[in-house]
What we know:
By secondary structure, chain A is an alpha+beta fold. Chain A has helices at 9-18, 31-36, 72-77, 83-90, 95-100, 103-109, 117-122, 140-143, 221-227, 234-243, 258-278; strands at residues 2-4, 23-25, 44-47, 57-59, 63-67, 126-130, 135-139, 144-146, 149-150, 157-164, 171-177, 188-196, 203-211, 218-219. In chain A, helix 10 packs antiparallel against helix 11. Chain A is globular. Chain B is of the alpha+beta class. Chain B has helices at residues 22-29, 86-94, 103-116, 122-128, 140-159, and strands at 2-7, 10-15, 48-51, 54-57, 70-72.
Amino acid sequence: MYYCIPRTVNEALQTVAEHPAGAFIAGGTDLMILISEGLKKPDGLIDLSRIEDLRAIRKDEKFLILGSAVTMRQLARHEDIPLCLRMGASQVGSPQIRSVATLGGNICNASPCGDTLPGLLVLDAEFLLKSLKEERRVKAKDFFLSPKKTALRTGEILVEVRFPLIKLTGSSGFAKIGQRRGQVISQVNAAVWCTLEKESGVLSDLRIAAGSVAPVPLELTALEEKLLGKVLDDETIEGVRQVAGELIAPITDVRATEEYRRAVMGSLIVDALRSALEASGRWKGGNK
Amino acid sequence: MKISFRCNGKPMQLEISPETRALDVLRDTLGLTGVKEGCGKGECGACTVLVDGLPVSSCLLPAAKLEGTEVLTIEGLRKPDGSLHPLQQAFLDEGAVQCGFCTPGMIMSAKALLDETPRPQVEDIEEALSGNICRCTGYGKIVQAVMRAAEKSEEGRHDG
Ligand SMILES: Cc1cc2nc3c(=O)[nH]c(=O)nc-3n(C[C@H](O)[C@H](O)[C@H](O)COP(=O)(O)OP(=O)(O)OC[C@H]3O[C@@H](n4cnc5c(N)ncnc54)[C@H](O)[C@@H]3O)c2cc1C
Ligand code: FES
Ligand code: FES
């Protein structure tokens, strides 16, 4: 086995072109477990975590741009990052995991319960994928194909994640349920992004996505349509709790049953909405 | 492959095989057996060391990732005169240790916290130690010990 530490994206792409059976490693928190369990046997590792360009968070005129090797720790502490993504990152594993685990690793690992993934969906994130031959952008909603399967091709690197700056003007939030607090994989998670009309508090735009309720992280468009144009009063919130579970198609697995996932979906979305609106003092739904 | 890094202040140059974990290099090659292996899967925190000041599970870390870094293990906490670090002393004084297996990892996570937040709230401590599991104590004394170490370090700073 070889281990190389390229300093540029191009150098990394050259290396994988020469050694197609090698694997990219970022933080290694997913990959090392797969290797130690014998589920992956790459003939070498190409470490992306030292490439400066991949570690930067920056803005241009239109987009907020996150390098794929930005860590969960960086995301959780960066004030420009919308809450739906920041909260997701801050609840990944433990401090030890967040020191090294990356956004790109969470995306490319494509677990249905990845805690940054619903946030990326509601932010309309786009991924820049690069190979020696070409460069293309894929939308988050088109990237995840099934558990652990993505649109990424052999020899391609996820270089950056970007979303429109206009997304920074809305409110966003995140909530997750696991078997205990801290150091826990989500049984279900949810992210929301919304804008409210100034005086009336009517929902003028709303995006809701959830993880672990389908083979891929999923946007709940039917629920969005039901809620658009409404005010989030007690009655509307109760409505969310009632119907959300029926709009998803979860499975039973080692972490939770289908019934449980349906039962908690609504409350989790309400929690995510609360975290979004409380920050700006616009939550009217009480503390339930 | 060759890697160079600093470990507990000393420069190291080692020949490693790329499959090796940082945990194995620290324990087996360098004899730093204060770094413990509990789960081997990133879940218990017993193997926590600081890499460039950040807490990391050395069981999930390829040793190759140590290249060019500054590593601190529990063995590196003692002062040059041999006296204990305030965290080590506080764990003893508060009786925050039973079997001791989790203790080095706990102390390293606490060290990362205090370096950044010298006067933490209880919630900060709970958050910083959320990746460290103890099977013996009820965590109460561990949290108290970190509080006490923070107070002592603060006094030390004011005294001189
Ligand atoms: C104890 C523990 C707790 C965890 N808890 C959580 C949790 O609460 N929530 C959660 O979402 N996840 C959790 N995880 C999973 C994991 O930490 C995250 O998915 C993390 O974001 C993975 O990032 P990484 O950089 O470590 O990925 P790596 O392991 O380095 O890579 C993962 C995969 O992505 C590929 N890859 C990485 N970067 C790129 C790139 N730029 N281009 C192309 N391919 C790439 C790699 O080849 C590999 O196949 C946990 C893991 C552990 C061990
Ligand atoms: S041994 Fe590394 S986290 Fe348990
Ligand atoms: S003292 Fe025994 S595991 Fe913590």
